[in-house]
Amino acid sequence: MSPVKDRSTSRFPAPDLAQVPKDVRERIEAVQEKSGFVPNVFLALARRPDEFRAFFAYHDALMEKPGALSKAEREMIVVATSGLNNCLYCVVAHGAILRIRAKNPLIADQVAVNYRKADLSPRQTAMLDFAVKVAARSHEVGEADYAALRDHGFAEDDAWDIAAIAAFYAMSNRLANAFSIRPNDEFYGMGQEPRN
Amino acid sequence: MSPVKDRSTSRFPAPDLAQVPKDVRERIEAVQEKSGFVPNVFLALARRPDEFRAFFAYHDALMEKPGALSKAEREMIVVATSGLNNCLYCVVAHGAILRIRAKNPLIADQVAVNYRKADLSPRQTAMLDFAVKVAARSHEVGEADYAALRDHGFAEDDAWDIAAIAAFYAMSNRLANAFSIRPNDEFYGMGQEPRN
Amino acid sequence: MSPVKDRSTSRFPAPDLAQVPKDVRERIEAVQEKSGFVPNVFLALARRPDEFRAFFAYHDALMEKPGALSKAEREMIVVATSGLNNCLYCVVAHGAILRIRAKNPLIADQVAVNYRKADLSPRQTAMLDFAVKVAARSHEVGEADYAALRDHGFAEDDAWDIAAIAAFYAMSNRLANAFSIRPNDEFYGMGQEPRN
Amino acid sequence: MSPVKDRSTSRFPAPDLAQVPKDVRERIEAVQEKSGFVPNVFLALARRPDEFRAFFAYHDALMEKPGALSKAEREMIVVATSGLNNCLYCVVAHGAILRIRAKNPLIADQVAVNYRKADLSPRQTAMLDFAVKVAARSHEVGEADYAALRDHGFAEDDAWDIAAIAAFYAMSNRLANAFSIRPNDEFYGMGQEPRN
Amino acid sequence: MSPVKDRSTSRFPAPDLAQVPKDVRERIEAVQEKSGFVPNVFLALARRPDEFRAFFAYHDALMEKPGALSKAEREMIVVATSGLNNCLYCVVAHGAILRIRAKNPLIADQVAVNYRKADLSPRQTAMLDFAVKVAARSHEVGEADYAALRDHGFAEDDAWDIAAIAAFYAMSNRLANAFSIRPNDEFYGMGQEPRN
Amino acid sequence: MSPVKDRSTSRFPAPDLAQVPKDVRERIEAVQEKSGFVPNVFLALARRPDEFRAFFAYHDALMEKPGALSKAEREMIVVATSGLNNCLYCVVAHGAILRIRAKNPLIADQVAVNYRKADLSPRQTAMLDFAVKVAARSHEVGEADYAALRDHGFAEDDAWDIAAIAAFYAMSNRLANAFSIRPNDEFYGMGQEPRN
After folding, report:
1. Confidence at residue D4, expressed as pLDDT on a 0 to 100 scale
2. Is the pair A, D in contact (3+ CB pairs within 8 Å)?
3. D125 CB-contact burial (10 Å; exposed 0-12 / middle 13-18 / buried 19+)
4. E-chain residues within 8 Å CB-CB of C116?
5. E89 vs D contacts (CB less than 8 Å)
6. Do E87 and F114 touch (CB under 8 A)?
């Protein structure tokens, strides 16, 4: 009676992994090794190796580099702006990562639905105010917005990071939405505290 | 380092249960008995017994009555429109109920973030198209919208139900948002399939 | 040449009053007695007695109870938020009530079209700023909005009342819009000062 | 207790009529003669005689000229687009004119709040669909919109008229809103059927 | 391969100039003399001589009169609000005039795309903040907006001018958009500093 | 009297080119060689070499690769979506490239302000309809949008390209807006046909 669950990775057929370039395949195998499954964004983008390489290089440059923003805070930016953009893949996949990195099973839903009501510090709320403005109305961003970040102790390079992460996921959300990239079932329960 | 978790039920102090009228207290005790905890909306609204009674009478009239819409489908309407209205309480609480009623740990996030990408039947998608239009642009609802429902087999009374549920949660979302009603921690993990 | 005037109460047929439950019929007869006609919302909702009872119980709990907001001020909230939601039934019916309760034939159009230009006290304008924010962007309501009300002398329970009335009519507007509930002709001229 | 009613014509002081150029004063005297009062838009714009002359010349060219649109229909365009733009002056003043020209005390509120629910012919609804699109999203107007008008019997010159009236009141609404031109009290009751 | 360039003045056929009234024809000949070509808005509106006369009388009353706003500043208002309204004719034609009047080949694109990033004085930015609010949300304009202008040295009559120009082009943009008035090819290169 | 022209590349200081990694410096020198100047986006992003490399790798993967979309058409996508996002840098810089690649001095302004009125083929208009939907409302993109592309002869890989370019510039626009990257003066006149 219930609809058959969709099993595709996206509306574009995923490539045969045997055919993808070695470096792309190795990155996919590494994430499989580490996570126990291959997040569908890897399979979807592998159709286009050059775009795959640039996408993950950009991702790593923003999300894996050292800096004053904690890894959980970077995921908050992803989840808040992906909620704004109604991106199912990014909310579910990065929501899982956020729960794990923040060691908080509640935080992803709070940030995705309305970060103003989330269990955040004032500094984190200011960070998301800026990120959401970049995502939604970047043409109105001005020096007053940078000053508000400084008031919460963010340095200039932190402001760059917040804006760049919001901008990168503005792209990522649009790719995932337009290509109907499906979040893997595994993400939904990650970091949850089940209750019977 | 992480912010202290908020423990309030809402921005208005919850009443002392010993002081609330007997019928209100009994309803609260009954839900406590059944669920193992008291959802915060009960405690928040108990501050106003007449409004409490009307709210839950209305809720029951729409959500508990017989009809062609399954209970899971009614919760889909709640979750889709509450996502649209960025209502944290309703998305989390009714997302939990939806997962349980649909016996599907994935469905709540799908419907809350973007029902167009959810594992739904075409009939359910049409139901949510109508519900979301009532929630967002009810002044543009017209006979063409009812015809689209009929094309998917919905009777006139089903159309009433969809519209009335969307309208009731338009109210409920605004109450929960304006009063900062906090979803109980218990809801987040309900119906999830945890993964380590 | 001019279109035949619609005479229906709503797009759903009104029930035969002889068939509706006694308490519902008695409420309808009481309003008929008092007003000289039956406002169409009573006839439209009588199709669903449980919903009828809950709707009017909720209405009375908010609009008839004692409190610091005058009855005219409560109607201002209804008319301003119903104008925002383009709800013909509510603007016309509650505009009539507002004119009468405020003893002011001008106030309903002013509040429905643009309350910022209406003959209101600063306190009433602050009340409508809050109500309209609840109606339009409740997810952004926060403590600063409550503080603005306090600055105009509103107590916490007054703030609850304003939000709850705005929320109740968010529901009511969507029902009236989706069901095409037609305002009775009698409302238009009530409280007007005719001019030839 | 109630706020003192504002008596100004607009936020700019009205000029001394003895000082305004003769042709402007004569036009004002003529409308006073005909209507029994001077609509405030005349007094507000008289501060700028050249703009006064151009404004009313344009008004007359669109609203008084012969053509397939009845005078009541032209006022429907004014009222529908002025409602969209939340222009109190234009909704109240032209609502009065519409009631009189259509000999229908209900029509102005219907068209101002939600023309889709008004007692209109399908042809008139199509006319307002076009007018409202010009008012709200003129950059998306295209040949399909003109074809929809043709389907209801509108000639090319009628389409011009509809667009030009919507455009002229886009200007007029912004002037009245920005200058806070107050609708004269006399307008509210004109064409109403009072009821006690 | 490339689409044939459209050569029409607008979607309505331009009138035979031999048939238009003498005063209209003389105005057209004068602009031809002065500019070396006839801007298409003259040809498009000549179809309706009375509207033509009122339109250009209004234009001249706002754009050619003495006043504290420089002619370049008036064109900034036109270009900023026409960008907001996606009006191709007005952005291109008045962008050309702005480049020439400001003796600045960069200014038109800056103001049309995002005046907040343009090479403007704070006073000019405040002028455009006001103009854009009149264009986009005139119902929310209030005394605080006039006070912001005063803080930058604008007198009451300057505020009128800014609002009136924004309002006039609200009309003009809608006419040009709805009628598809095509900007003459000559405008694009005017005031540019070409680079090979 | 006129404001001093801003000479910065962005709100973040550009790095000393002597200090940037060799590969980044070489890319900058190559573009300087080819264009005669260094577009500011290169200098702004050089502050972050890893992001610089990923950004331009992604750019080249989308904009320089073979495919059914001509290079001019790819620039149309950039200009139309950048206009939507009010991105001054991208409209001016890519407007210049579009004029040159399309050998058409009019096309950039047309596409930036309102592509619906531009001299485009129906196929190109369909391409931009899709791109703009990805940019503005990607969560509503569905199979009907892909079918509309197919109707104009676009293959599946072309649809990917359109969406990916729109998504990449969704990121790029937000970076340029948030960082206030200034378009170089040289871009404005490129590909223009000057007129005295």
Report:
1. 60
2. no
3. middle
4. 139-140, 142
5. none
6. yes
Q: Is B194 exposed, middle or buried (0-12, 13-18, 19+ CB in 10 A)?
A: middle
Using the 8-state DSSP alphabet, how is residue E82 labeled?
Answer: H
How confident is the model over C79-127, as pLDDT tens digits? Answer: 999 999 999 999 999 999 999 999 999 999 999 999 999 999 999 999 9
pLDDT at B1: 41
Cβ–Cβ contacts within 10 Å for residue E170, how many? 30
Contacts of C144 in chain A (CB under 8 A): none
Check residue B138 and report its DSSP letter.
G
- Which chain C residue is nearest to residue B131, measuring alpha carbons? C178
Query: What secondary structure letter does DSSP report for B116?
Result: G
pLDDT at A183 over 90: yes
Our CA-based measurement puts residue A139 at a distance from the nearest CA of chain E, in whole angstroms, of 7
Distances (CA, A) of F67 to B59, F57, F166: 56, 17, 16
- Sequence-ordered list of residues with C-beta below 8 angstroms from that of F40, at least 6 positions apart, any chain: F9, F10, F89, F181, F182, F183, F184
**What is the CA angle E149-E154-E156, rounded to 5?**
95
Contact F81, F166 (CB under 8 A): yes
Whether D188 contacts C193, CB under 8 Å: yes
Chain C residue with minimal CA distance to E142? C116
What is the separation of C-alpha E53 from the centre of its chain, rounded to a whole number of angstroms?
17
- C99: closest chain D residue by CA: D188
Identify the three-state secondary structure at position B195.
Answer: strand
CB B127 within 8 A of CB B119: no
Q: Which two tokens stand for residue C107?
A: 């106030």
Reduced 3-state DSSP string for F34-72: HHCCCCHHHHHHCCCHHHHHHHHHHHHHHHCCCCCCCHH
Residue D122, both tokens: 């399908």
If phi > 0 it is left, if psi is from -120 to 50 it is alpha, else beta; for residue F103 that is: left
Nearest to B164 among C51, C143, C146 (CB): C51
Place of tokens 């801007």: E39
How far is residue C93's CA from residue C44's CA, in Å, rounded to a whole number? 14
* Best CA proximity match to D117, nearest among B160, C93, C45, B139: B139
Interface mutation target, options C115, C116, C133, chain E, most CBs of E under 10 Å:
C116
Its pTM surpasses 0.90: yes
Radius of gyration from C-alpha coordinates of chain B: 17
Q: Which amino acid is at C61?
A: A
* Chain C residues inside the 8 Å CB shell of A117: 139
Q: What is the pLDDT of residue F3?
A: 57
d(CA A33, CA A54): 22
DSSP C35: H
State how far the Cα of D98 lies from the Cα of C88, in Å rounded to an integer: 17
DSSP structure string for A44-62? HHTTSHHHHHHHHHHHHHH
Cβ distance of B173 and C87 shorter than 8 Å? no
Label residues D128-161 b or e (16+ Cβ within 10 Å = b). bbbbbbbbeebbebeeebbeebeebebeeebbbb
| Token pair belonging to C82 | 């119903």
Beta-carbon separation of E114 and F6 below 8 A: no
CB atoms within 10 A of CB B186: 17
| Cross-chain Cβ contact E114/A142 below 8 Å | no
- By CB atoms closer than 10 A (0-12, 13-18, 19+), residue C102 is buried
